[in-house]
Design brief:
- Helices cover 28% and strands 19% of the residues.
- A hairpin with a 2-residue loop joins strand 8 and strand 9.
- Strands 1-2-3-7 form a four-stranded antiparallel beta sheet. A three-stranded antiparallel beta sheet has the order 4-6-5, with no helix packed on it. The protein has a two-stranded antiparallel ribbon with strand order 8-9.
- The protein is of the alpha+beta class and 263 residues long.
- The chain binds a DNA duplex (14 and 14 nucleotides) through helix 1 and helix 6.
Amino acid sequence: MPEGHLAHRYAREHARGLAGRIAVASPQGRFAVEAAALDGRRIEGVEAYGKHLFYSWDDTSVVHVHLGLVGTFLHHRVPVPDPRGQVRLRMVGDGLTVDLVAPARCERIDPAGRDRVVERLGPDPLRGDADAEAVWQRIHRSRSPIGALLLDQSVVAGLGNVLRSETLHIAGISPTRPGDQVARADFDRWWHVLGETMRRATATGRITTVDPPAGTDPEGLADSDLRRVYKRERCARCGTVVQRWALAGRDVHACPACQPPPR
DNA sequence: AAGAATGTTATGTA
DNA sequence: CTACATAACATTCT
């Protein structure tokens, strides 16, 4: 389910809530071996990098989690229910119990293994050390459409399908524009917008790119009402019918008026 | 109740 | 080699 903002949100929440006495209970399914080795151990830190999560334990092992398309965490307060059949890993903290469901990845590695995962990732805009220049160089030197580059986690870490369409729309860039034909000023604007959008999404747990109508409660609004083009019939800015087509294997959404395609 | 979904990886094709 | 596309994977929600 998640793009990078949710990984960071989980990292923050879990760093706070899983401190103290930790036990792993009832690991099941394909990740049972990794989880069983951690039974009774303590979590010392949680880190997000792009869509990846790293849990550091007091035996120096690191649990690497990637939620993939459908993975999620179930959070329980007391009374804690029995793990459901599909729970791969349960982490128990003070007042918070977390079950990991349907991850694409859940493996016990070591700090060097963590570094190897991070090496394959581009800069993460949600981290203070994100190197915008490195992202620019990758885009600027490529003839691939920018809409494809933005889903490549080695170019930028943490972008998913919603952020791709929404941030390109805000920046006024067509997804089909080749990377080497993107103007520096457009890139700079896009990078700024991306950071803002991701930080807001981390705070709210939801990717929103338009303000809700005055007086309405955003909670009650559908996702598409708080977005500009993604899964919308018409562009939220100008009303033009949104175009939708597969790019890099996933449906991208764009407004032909706000994001004129390259000539 | 079939199908879509905020994803990655391995494999295939031009 | 490059730059795509496609299939497989697994669960929840509509």
